Amino acid sequence: MSTSNSPNHASSETTRGLETRLEDQQRGQQQDSEARRGSLLPDIPPEILAAIFLLIPRDEGDTSWISVTHVCRLWREVALDCSCFWSDLNSVPPRFMEFALARSKGAPITV
């Protein structure tokens, strides 16, 4: 009688599969937790953080507003994903124009 067809073998494979899935989920949660710990404002939802970013003064030729993408991983992800943040082309240097247009994702553009 082959042991590979036994109920114990099937149960063992199922258990290993479940353990692998659980480990993957735990790794993902740990990475999320580490990203939040690395953030200066870990409890602020991304939507609120994006709204705050939109309040940053943006003068023509001044690119200091882009520094929020250099603070931490969470801030970078939120800023890069916020289409309105990239739709004001007055404060975007010409060399970044294509990048800004792509990031604006069809949001109304200010020229």
UniProtKB/TrEMBL annotation:
Pfam families, A to Z: F-box-like
Record's compositionally biased regions (Basic and acidic residues): 16-26
Bias-annotated ranges (Polar residues): 1-15
Ranges where the F-box domain occurs: 42-89
Ranges for region Disordered: 1-41
InterPro entries registered for this protein in UniProt: F-box-like_dom_sf, F-box_dom
Protein's UniProt name: F-box domain-containing protein
Source organism of the structure: Ephemerocybe angulata
